[in-house]
Amino acid sequence: MKLEKGKGTVPGSRRRPKVPESRHPDLKYLGYTPVAFSSPTDALESFAAAPEQFYLVSTDYRMPTMNGQEFAMQIKAIRGDIPVVLISGNIQSTTEKALRTDLFCDILHKPVKISTFSVSIAKAIKSNCGSGVFRIE
User: Fold this and answer.
1) Pairing relation of β-strands 32-37 and 57-59?
2) Pairing of strands 8-13, 106-109
3) Are the beta carbons of 63 and 40 closer than 8 angstroms?
4) What are the tens digits of pLDDT across the range 92-132?
5) CB–CB of 120/92 below 8 Å?
6) Are the CB atoms for 57 and 103 separated by under 8 Å?
7) Residue 74: closest CA among 40, 97, 99, 100
């Protein structure tokens, strides 16, 4: 599968602050400028300060203080057209069925191959999916 390259700033929030974001080197290779946060609160503060600087938001589902859906709702309240990709290894099928899919451009299950991740990000940004959902198969 061909890797989709692009450019832009991509913030991400993870649930384990001491674990380095394994996708950051991949995002840099793909031409993006990743910005990592150790808490969703920090990510929201940074995003609210300059929402126009970001092209896409990626988030985990399980994080301290709020889950990925709550986080996406707050991000969308700041800038409704921002594409959001949910990436999680701990999401149950019942939880996934209850997700507001209108908040997410894609829902990826860990581990995620870089080729899948690159296509997901590129399609989310190019299609301006802030108002819809797509799936990468």
Assistant:
1) unpaired
2) unpaired
3) yes
4) 765 777 788 788 899 888 888 888 888 998 888 888 776 54
5) no
6) no
7) 40
Residues 6 or more apart whose Cβ sits within 8 Å of residue 14: 21, 36, 37, 38, 60, 63
Residue 29 CB: number of other CB atoms within 10 A? 12
Q: What is the pTM of this model?
A: 0.76
The DSSP-derived string for 52-117 is GG-S-EEE-SS-SSS-HHHHHHHHHHH-TT--EEEEESS--HHHHHHS-GGG-SEEEESS--HHHH
The SS3 assignment for 32 reads strand
Smallest CA-to-CA distance from 96 within 137, 135, 47 is with 135
Residue ranges of E strands in 14-59: 32-37, 57-59
